[in-house]
Amino acid sequence: MLDLRLEAVMEGVLVTGTATAGLAGECVRCLDAVTDEVEARFQELYVYDDDGDSRQGDDQDDDVSRLERDLLDLEPVLRDAVVLALPFQPLCEEDCPGLCTECGARLADDPDHGHEDPVDPRWAGLAALRQDPGDAPA
Q1: Per the count of CB atoms within 10 A, which of 5, 24, 32, 116 is most buried?
Q2: What pTM does this model have?
Q3: Rg of the chain's alpha carbons, rounded to an integer?
């Protein structure tokens, strides 16, 4: 959704507005789907295009938005504003615990999730030599 205000100024047309867009993605911690809305505010001056020198100054003024006759192109301005308003790391919940680093289980579904302490590979061969207390020689 767009809410725009167009104002005629000496140099051209000043466009001020707000864009509301839907956001769909994945949580960076648990990979669950994230849906939200993002609101981006923007303001851009579209300069009148003088017919006499319309192409002479384009090399110098690449960052200047120009009117093409009586039309203006909002796409680059909207795209930039919405992309800058997107969250850098979208989360499904503010305190999302993420995934288990060992097995990939979602920790929000099983908060008591755990694993046995890993055995040091240097001592793993000694596990075969371990005797049960009932097997001890008399």
Answers
A1: 32
A2: 0.65
A3: 30
